[in-house]
Each structure stands twice: as C-alpha cells, then as structure tokens.
Amino acid sequence: DHGYGPDIDHVLLSEEQIRDKIAELAAQVTADYAGKEVLLVGVLKGAVLFMSDFARALQIPTQMEFMAVSSYGSATSSSGVVRILKDLDRDITGKHVLVLEDIIDSGLTLSWLLKNLGGRSPASLEVCALLRKPDAVKVEVPVKYIGFDIPNEFVIGYGLDYAERYRDLPYIGTLKPEVYQ
Ligand code: PRP
Ligand code: MN
Ligand code: MG
User: Fold this and answer.
1) How many domains does the chain have?
2) Ligand 1 lined by 167 (C-beta under 6 Å)
3) 14 pLDDT exceeds 90?
4) What pLDDT, on a 0 to 100 scale, did the predictor assign at position 90?
5) Residue 180 C-alpha to ligand 3 middle, in angstroms?
6) Whether the CB of 111 sits within 6 Å of ligand 1
7) Which residue's CA is the nearest one to ligand 1's atom 7?
8) 42: Cβ below 6 Å to ligand 1?
9) How far, in Å, from the CA of 164 to the mean position of ligand 3?
10) Torsion angle of alpha carbons 111, 142, 68, 96, nearest 10°?
C-alpha cells in the first residue's frame, strides 16, 4: 500500500469491488454504444486510474481526451465557477462523448462541465462516474452510469487525493482524523 497503511482509517471499497463494478459498468456501456466509436473525456487528475481501467474493460473502440478544471479563486469547488486549466485537444462536434469522473461530490464541477461540453455539438453526451455522494442530488446533474453511492465522508485512493497524496492507492478508503491535523 505504498507505505500509506498507518494513515488509513478503513477501506471503503476494495480493489476487487472496484474491479467488479468497472466490469459491470463497461458491459453496460459496451452494449449501449454497440457499433459506435466513443470519445472518453477524463477529468484530470482524479479520473485517471478509473479511465485507464474502464477503457481496458470496454469491448468497443474508444478514443481518449482529457480536461483539467479548477474552481475559480477559492480552495473548494463549491463556488460552482470553474476555470479550464487544460482544454480538449480536439473538436467534439458529432462525437459520442462519455465524460469519466472519479467522484461527484457537490456536482458543481460536472454540472458546469456538461453545459460547457454540451455547447460544442457532440452527437451525444453522457457521464460515467465511479462514485457519487449524497450532496450531489442537490444539483441537477444527469448521470447515466454510476458505480457506487457512498456516504458523506472524505475518501481517498484510486485517483482521489488529499493534498495531492494517496491517488496511487489501489483501493478507496478514509483517512484517520490525525492525518488532517
Ligand atoms: C474532485 C473530484 C471531482 C470533483 C468533484 O476534483 O475529482 O472532479 O472534485 O467535486 P464537486 O462535485 O463538488 O464539484 P478536484 O477538483 O479535487 O481535482 P483533482 O481531480 O485534480 O483532484
Ligand atoms: Mn477531479
Ligand atoms: Mg482533488
């Protein structure tokens, strides 16, 4: 576990649970997009591990693009005002776009992103998120594919960070309170 063991409070989702869920999501997406080519849009940096495992589990051809976004000015994304740090490299007009996110927390990042991408005339635009927190239901974000609904606690691992650490953990867990102090 990369030496992170002493920082971990408990494991919320094991490697095996994540792998099984990705296989399930990938089977659904493979069926829904049969005969089409899909453009996966990963939201940096959290979605990187999910995207690489998900793309390998799909049985249809996909292409990959990435976007990096940041909330404007403040430390949290709760303002809902988002700034593009890295845009897509290509035009998505006429493409079947599937946005991949690691987690939907308030939903504000994704709701902004969907408006932005929706304005670029894709043939279709859907979201696949590995995790969703209860607060996300307060913001209207249409999400077609969801891995797990999780409790409202701070989670790290499998792409999710605390101060840029723990993204490389193969499972999803919580941190001991003293790690935040
Ligand atoms: C996290 C997470 C989602 C977003 C969810 O990203 O990866 O992208 O926050 O929050 P929201 O639903 O409240 O908007 P973060 O901004 O921490 O960047 P990162 O992916 O680089 O860690
Ligand atoms: Mn993110
Ligand atoms: Mg983060």
Assistant:
1) 1
2) no
3) yes
4) 97
5) 15
6) no
7) 46
8) no
9) 7
10) -130
Which residue's C-alpha comes closest to atom 3 of ligand 1?
103
What range does the domain containing 12 cover?
5-180
pTM of the model: 0.95
Task: Please state the ipTM of this predicted complex.
Answer: 0.97
Q: How far is the CA of 155 from the centre of ligand 2 (A)?
A: 13
CATH number of domain containing 170: 3.40.50.2020
User: H/E/C letters for each residue in the chain?
Assistant: CCCCHHHEEEEEECHHHHHHHHHHHHHHHHHHCCCCCEEEEEEECCCHHHHHHHHHHCCCCEEEEEEEEEECCCCCCCCCCEEEEECCCCCCCCCEEEEEEEEECCCHHHHHHHHHHHCCCCCEEEEEEEEECHHHHHCCCCCCEEEEECCCCCEEECCECECCECCCCCCEEEECHHHHC
pLDDT digits (tens, 9 = 90+) for 30-46: 999 999 999 999 999 99
Q: Quick one: pLDDT at residue 134?
A: 87
List, by residue number, the catalytic residues: 105
**Among protein residues, the one whose CA lies closest to atom 22 of ligand 1:** 46
Q: Is the pLDDT of residue 74 over 60?
A: no
